[in-house]
Amino acid sequence: MPTPTKPLELKRKLGNPGRQKLPNINSTITLSAGYVEPHQPLGLAGTLLWERVFNLGATWISPRSDVELLLITCKQLDRQLLFEAQVSEHPEDFHASRQLLELENAIVRNLGLLGLSVDSRSKLGLAEIKAESKLEQLKRRQQEREQARHPLTSP
Questions:
Q1: Is the model's pTM score more than 0.70?
Q2: 107-129 b/e with 16+ CB inside 10 Å = b?
Q3: The dihedral sign for the CA sequence 86, 89, 95, 101
Q4: Secondary structure of the chain in the HEC alphabet?
Q5: Is residue 96 domain-resident?
Q6: Is residue 153 part of a domain?
Q7: Is 122 a domain residue?
Q8: Distance of alpha carbon 33 from its chain centroid, rounded?
Q9: How many domains does the chain have?
């Protein structure tokens, strides 16, 4: 499986390590931000996702171009609740269980497309997941010991 391409933002941040020609930054578009009301009615789960996306700062979600995918994902979450109720009432119904599983897979895919998963945010350059290396741990411990030995005295 080929390595996924890095987003342009990440290439710029890393200093363009591949020395590929990048588009002029002045020719990029600016995403408009701000709250948008859903243009179709949503259920409880869909409304909660919609509110979280716009109220908790998912600034990369564009109200002009991303709301359709967000709306579809919110409706899928509402449908998921219906399927879960159906599966709990009739656990022997294989088709309902299968539909629920496929719907959940589609929800996860759409959340990734919207940049609402850890993996997709890291690909967008919006979050960095990094474990502290041994060297960094040693340096941090050394700094803590130095600070403990030489505490600042107040005048």
A1: no
A2: beebbeebbbbeeebbbebbeee
A3: positive
A4: CCCCCCCHHHHHHCCCCCCCCCCCHHHCCCCCCCCCCCCCCCCHHHHHHHHHHHHCCCCCCCCCCCHHHHHHHHHHHHHHHHHHHHHHHCCCCHHHHHHHHHHHHHHHHHHHHCCCCHHHHHHHCCCCCCCCCHHHHHHHHHHHHHHHHCCCCCC
A5: yes
A6: no
A7: yes
A8: 16
A9: 1
Domain of 106 in residue numbering reads as: 43-127
Scanning the structure block, which residue is given the tokens 């996306």?
A: 53
Tell me the pLDDT of the chain (155 aa) as tens digits. Answer: 566 666 666 666 667 677 777 666 665 555 555 677 888 999 999 999 988 887 765 667 777 778 899 999 999 999 999 999 999 999 999 999 999 999 999 999 999 888 887 777 667 665 444 455 677 778 888 888 888 887 665 44
Residue type, 37: E
pLDDT digits (tens, 9 = 90+) for 18-37: 777 766 666 555 555 567 78
Residue 84 is assigned to a structural domain of this protein: yes
Token pair recorded at residue 39:
């243009």
Residues 6+ apart with CB under 8 A from 152: none
